[in-house]
Amino acid sequence: MKTKYIAIINGGGANFNSVINALKILKVKTVITDDAKIISNAEKVILPGVGSADYAMKLLKQKGLDVVIKNLKQPVLGICLGAQLLCKSSAEGHVKCLDIIPLKVEKITNAKIIPHMGWNNLTVVKKHPILTDIKNTDDFYFVHSYCANFDDKNVLASCEYGNKFGAIINRDNFYGFQFHPEKSGKAGLVLLKNFINL
């Protein structure tokens, strides 16, 4: 793989080690940073996140990273909360997010147990290179109480837990995985490899 390095944005999130370890398996160099120049010069960018949308957006704005992320032209991947932050707004804290992917993040409904925690498969909505070698029977690991609403324009793959939601979302060079590919075994590594190869 030709990737010089992937910038992992330190926007107050967590779960960096799991992402780094997965990318090490794929032999990719990573840099955890909140430096705008390093982020802008990276070949690919990942925005991970564990926590609340309002707190994460506050930190991104304090560091000026909200503007930096919006202006990125290389492939950008948001994971879990990071995917939600790419959306228009979140009901978690009633906060305006980065407004890159025009979807709203709402709380999971019609489910007996919240958060959604465990393994679920995806339904491919649109063919896309990021879904190369991914089957509808592949399972991915989810931990979340909020999710992007479903539409057939910005959703590449959906999942159902209580309600149908966007599990892989996309607009232009921005991608979001609601699940954790770094904790999803071989299928998760396939998805990360597909992102690297975009």
Overall body shape: globular
- Parts with pLDDT < 50 across at least 5 consecutive residues: none
Main beta sheet, described? Answer: 12 strands, mixed
Overall SS class: alpha/beta
- Give the integer mean of the pLDDT values: 94
> Element order, helices and strands?
EHEHEHHEHEEEEEEEEEEH
- Helical amount: 10-25%
What does this molecule look like?
With 198 residues, this protein is α/β, with parallel strands linked by helices. The protein is 25% helix and 34% strand. The protein contains six helices and 14 strands. It has helices at residues 16-25, 36-41, 53-62, 65-70, 81-85, 185-196, and strands at 6-9, 30-33, 44-47, 76-79, 87-90, 95-96, 101-107, 116-121, 123-124, 139-144, 146-149, 155-161, 163-171, 174-177. The strands form two sheets. Strands 1, 2, 3, 4, 5, 6, 7, 9, 11, 12, 13 and 14 form a twelve-stranded mixed β-sheet that branches. Helix 1 (16-25) links the parallel strand 1 (6-9) and strand 2. The longest helix is centred in the C-terminal third of the chain and has 12 residues, at 185-196. The protein is globular. The model has no long low-confidence stretch (mean pLDDT 94).
Task: Provide key terms for this protein.
alpha/beta, 6 helices, 25% helix
Short description:
The protein is an alpha/beta fold and 198 residues long. It is built from 6 helices and 14 strands.
